[in-house]
Design goal:
alpha+beta, 6-stranded antiparallel beta sheet, 6 strands, 27% strand
C-alpha cells in the first residue's frame, strides 16, 4: 500500500472514531437528560382562543441556579429579595419555617398518596405524591393546569429559604 493510501486510511479511521465517539456522547447526554428529574408545567386554556403553554426543565438546572444565585446576584438585590421573602414568611405561623423541611423530607419518604383533593363541581384540584415528585393537577372551566416538581428540589428551595 502506498504512503498516500496509508495516510488516507489513518485519517478515515480517525474520522470514524471521532464520529462514533461524538454520536455516543450525544446519546449519553440525551439519556442523562431524559432520565433526570424534570420540572414540568402545562397550562391549557379552554375555548376557541385558548392557548397551550408547556415546558419541562431539568431539575438539576434549577438546582444549579439556586446554588449559584447567592454568588452571582448582587448583594443589594439578594438582600432585597431576602427582606421581601422574610416579610411574606412572617405572615405564616411561626412553626411553619421550623417544620417545612421536616415535612418535605417526610413527604419524600412516604408512600404515594393523594395529599389534597378539592372538587366544588366547577373546579377540581388534586395534589399528590407520586414517586419522587409532587404533582398538582387543576381542572377548571377556563383552563387545565398540570405541574410536576421533584421533591428533592423542594427540599433545596426550603434550604435556601431558611437562609
Amino acid at each position: 500500500m502506498s504512503r498516500g493510501a496509508r495516510i488516507f486510511w489513518i485519517f478515515t479511521g480517525l474520522f470514524a472514531i471521532f464520529v462514533v465517539g461524538s454520536a455516543g456522547a450525544v446519546v449519553l447526554a440525551a439519556h442523562a437528560v431524559h432520565s433526570m428529574p424534570m420540572i414540568e408545567v402545562s397550562v391549557r386554556e379552554h375555548g376557541p382562543e385558548g392557548t397551550h403553554i408547556g415546558f419541562a426543565i431539568p431539575a438539576a438546572a434549577v438546582g444549579a441556579g439556586l446554588a449559584i444565585a447567592p454568588h452571582v446576584v448582587p448583594d443589594e438585590a439578594w438582600q432585597e429579595m431576602r427582606v421581601d421573602l422574610d416579610a411574606e414568611l412572617a405572615e405564616l405561623p411561626p412553626q411553619w419555617r421550623e417544620t417545612s423541611r421536616e415535612m418535605i423530607r417526610a413527604l419524600a419518604d412516604m408512600p404515594d398518596a393523594v395529599l389534597v383533593e378539592v372538587d366544588d363541581h366547577q373546579d377540581h384540584v388534586r395534589v399528590e405524591k407520586r414517586g419522587s415528585e409532587l404533582v398538582v393537577t387543576v381542572r377548571s372551566s377556563d383552563a387545565d393546569v398540570d405541574v410536576t416538581v421533584p421533591i428533592a428540589l423542594l427540599d433545596r428551595v426550603a434550604e435556601l429559604v431558611d437562609g
